[in-house]
Design a protein that fits this description.
The complex is a heterodimer of chains A (about 300) and B (about 300). With about 300 residues, chain A is mainly α. Helices cover about 70% and strands about 0% of the residues of chain A. In chain A, helix 5 packs parallel to helix 8, helix 6 packs across helix 9 and helix 12 packs antiparallel against helix 15. Chain A has 15 helices and no strands. With about 300 residues, chain B is mainly alpha-helical. Chain B has two domains: about 60 residues, no CATH class; about 230 residues, MetI-like fold, CATH 1.10.3720.10. Chain B has a two-stranded antiparallel sheet with strand order 1-2. Chain B is flat, with a radius of gyration of 27 Å. The chains are: A mainly alpha (about 300), B mainly alpha (about 300). Chains A and B meet through helix 2, helix 5, helix 6, helix 7 and helix 8 of A and helix 1, helix 2, helix 4, helix 5 and helix 6 of B. Chain B: It is found in: Cell membrane. Chain B: It is a multi-pass membrane protein. Chain B: One of its GO terms (cellular component) is plasma membrane.
Chain lengths: ~300, ~300
């Protein structure tokens, strides 16, 4: 499924062409150009950001800009942390992302299990109605969902300025249910029947047998959930209006107007670190999840 | 109907078959109750935050709401307000321009990059990680960062242009370049996923096809045209549909980087929707705009779903 097969599969160019002298020179030339372009396009901006945070506002305004900071000052990171009260926004973002993750799993896993293994009356209809929501562009639901959040029917509560305003709509995620159900479908029914004969109820079967077998897909769903919650902007902007509970993205955007440029850049660096570190650690799972999406069967 | 769903009864009966119909019926009811017990949380969140808003969105398009009195039915008036707004046409034009440019730049580049990367035999992990890093950055961070790069004075880009003796650009401050500047940011930030998806697709092309083509005397370009592209056509099509749907909903970049300016040159449909709903508090007209957006994008999404589901 992933690209891990390092067996030299024949590609556009034949290995034979590449072994020729001219082929070797051409290869290294192209390699060099691609390497330089990639570094310039994707590494330079990030390095520029890291260095920028260590320059003073006056140095940042200089017209041929300095490349390395004249007197590197890591203090801007500390100062930005205090000035923008980042500790609180980090905490809020973690609460939002962790909650969105937990609620999505708690809602979608049992639902997918029921649709895949218990197959109740009208189950196909339920699944169809859920999948139909995938056809809606998220932005088409912005206004009605916002109005629903301000006055949730039946419960009669206003969820504006509550993290639940993000958790609950995030749980109505048909893509999760689709991915999970498709994975559960492949777990042999005999396995579940064996458990049932041993006297296991549905909850035990789900927790003891299905979930341990489903680790790969749970990882994919979890990564999607956390990354989406961490990156989201427009929805938290609408429903988290009280600065005290805003997420990093919303807060950074609000601070941008009146924050000294060097502190702003330091704030951007700090806000990027968790996701970049997570990516470097969970690289394999994240990249595998990418192809698990809708593309491959 | 209901029995057919349950037809392949995996209830192996247990030890002594109950045999009597009442017992089996009771069993069936109990099974269904359990299943709906597992489903109930999902049914509630879908009902409240997905199905109900869909219906409500359609109704709102034909209503005027003020939260004090009951909503009032106004017929097509919201749509008329929209059509009379000169920004409506401008927003469509800008959004289509963004989507078009994003297709030209953001669709072709990742594929070309993937084809080249697929030929390289060294430093592959480096390329993969580096191209995907921007995808992990929060879009707000990317937007603020690039706003600083685009600064016509000491910004990174004009500094680089000056370094090479090239003419400077006004980037976000000029109506002629503002939109393409946004497209460049958006492409930079998101091309990682497309590139890696294409790389995965390229890895599945059987090597024999290239060998056979080469034996038939096809040169590199012909092999690219007659082997690589046809073999990845499905993924390309799906990604294109996904990209159209995503780019037509662009919001974060114009909201943060330009606020719709200069001279409305970057007012996108979503920015207009945001203004109607959350600046003018005109939820009816905002819903009418959502409905129009849904009709256009729903067609693309439906096609996308159809393709991916029939394929798997």
């Amino acid at each position: 499924m992933t690209v891990r097969k390092e067996r030299p599969n024949r590609t556009l160019l034949s290995p034979w062409t590449l072994e020729k002298r001219s082929g070797r020179i051409g290869y290294w030339l192209v390699f060099g150009v691609v390497f330089l372009l990639f570094t310039a396009a994707f590494v330079t901006p990030l390095v520029w950001m890291l260095l920028g945070a260590m320059k003073s506002p006056a140095e940042l305004a200089q017209m041929p800009p300095t490349i390395l900071p004249e007197s590197p000052d890591v203090g801007a990171y500390r100062e930005a942390w205090d000035f923008m009260e980042l500790a609180g926004y980090f905490r809020n973002t973690v609460v939002v992302a962790a909650g969105a993750w937990l609620v999505q799993l708690a809602v979608c896993v049992p639902a997918a299990y029921a649709l895949s293994k218990l197959r109740p009356v009208l189950g196909k209809w339920v699944l169809g109605l859920m999948l139909a929501t995938l056809m809606l562009p998220a932005s088409a639901l912005l206004v009605p969902t916002y109005l629903t959040i301000t006055d949730v029917p039946l419960l009669d509560v206003n969820l504006i300025n509550s993290p639940a305003a993000i958790w609950l709509p995030a749980a109505a995620n048909a893509f999760n249910i689709y991915l999970l159900k498709r994975f559960f479908d492949q777990i042999p029914t005999e396995l579940l029947d064996a458990a049932r004969i041993d006297g296991a109820g549905n909850v035990t079967t789900l927790v003891r047998i299905v979930l341990p077998l489903s680790r790969p897909i749970l990882a994919v769903v979890s990564i999607f959930a956390v990354v989406a919650a961490w990156k989201d902007f427009i929805w938290p902007l609408l429903v988290l209006q009280d600065p005290g509970i805003q997420t990093l993205s919303v807060a950074l955007q609000r601070y941008e107007e009146f924050t000294p440029i060097n502190l702003m850049i330091a704030g951007l660096v700090l806000a990027s670190i968790p996701m970049v570190v997570a990516f470097l650690i969970f690289q394999r799972q994240i990249l595998a999840g990418l192809t698990a999406g809708g593309i491959k069967g | 109907m209901s029995t057919t769903v349950l037809a392949p009864p995996r209830d192996t009966g247990g030890p002594p078959a109950p045999a009597d119909r009442v017992g089996r019926l009771r069993r069936k009811v109990l099974d269904n109750l359990t299943a709906y017990g597992f489903l109930c949380a999902a049914l509630v969140v879908f009902a409240l935050f997905s199905w109900y808003p869909i219906v409500r969105g359609v109704l709102l398009s034909f209503q005027q709401v003020n939260f004090i009195t009951d909503p009032e039915w106004v017929g097509w008036q919201n749509f008329q307000t929209l059509f009379a707004d000169p920004l409506f046409g401008i927003a469509w034009r800008n959004t289509l321009l963004f989507t078009g440019l994003a297709l030209v730049i953001g669709f072709a580049i990742p594929f070309a990059v993937a084809v080249v990367l697929n030929e390289l035999r060294h430093a592959k992990p480096y390329f993969r990680i580096v191209v995907y890093l921007p995808v992990m950055l929060p879009p707000v961070v990317v937007a603020i960062l690039w706003k600083w790069f685009y600064d016509p004075g000491p910004g990174l880009f004009n500094s680089a242009l000056r370094l090479f003796g090239l003419p400077e650009l006004s980037w976000l401050d000029d109506t002629g370049t503002s939109m393409i500047s946004l497209v460049i940011v958006a492409t930079w930030a998101s091309m990682g996923s497309a590139t890696l998806i294409y790389l995965a697709a390229l890895a599945t092309i059987p090597g024999e096809l290239y060998e056979a083509a080469e034996l038939d005397g096809a040169n590199v370009w012909q092999r690219l045209r007659h082997v690589t592209i046809p073999q990845t056509r499905f993924v390309l099509l799906v990604m294109m549909l996904m990209q159209i749907v995503a780019t037509m909903q662009v919001f974060t970049e114009p909201y943060i980087m330009t606020g719709g300016g200069p001279e409305d040159s970057t007012v996108t449909l979503l920015l207009l929707l945001y203004r109607y709903a959350f600046v003018y508090n005109d939820f009816g007209t905002a819903s009418a705009l959502s409905l129009l957006l849904f009709v256009v994008l729903g067609a693309f999404s439906a096609l996308y779903l159809r393709l991916t589901r029939t394929r798997s």
